Task: inverse folding
């Protein structure tokens, strides 16, 4: 699935990013790279997502979310 298909509250692991060089580099600078665990916090009005990686939060537009592939992460409940 891609990040655009995720919903607020989901915890996912990035498996692949299919973006061009400059945008891929920018994602890596933000910590959005294969293997990163991402917390989806909000859905934007035009299909984007607000995500958290560690203590950082940032917004991604819908077009970028379509190219970020993720897999669900099982979060243990206490």
Result:
């Amino acid at each position: 699935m891609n990040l655009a298909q995720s919903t607020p509250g989901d915890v996912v692991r990035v498996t692949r990013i299919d973006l061009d060089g400059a945008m891929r580099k920018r994602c890596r600078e933000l910590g959005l790279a294969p293997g990163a665990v991402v917390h989806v916090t909000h859905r934007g009005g035009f299909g984007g997502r607000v995500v958290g990686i560690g203590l950082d939060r940032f917004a991604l537009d819908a077009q970028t979310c379509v190219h970020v592939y993720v897999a669900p992460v099982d979060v243990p409940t206490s």
In short: The chain has a mean pLDDT of 94. The radius of gyration is 12 Å.
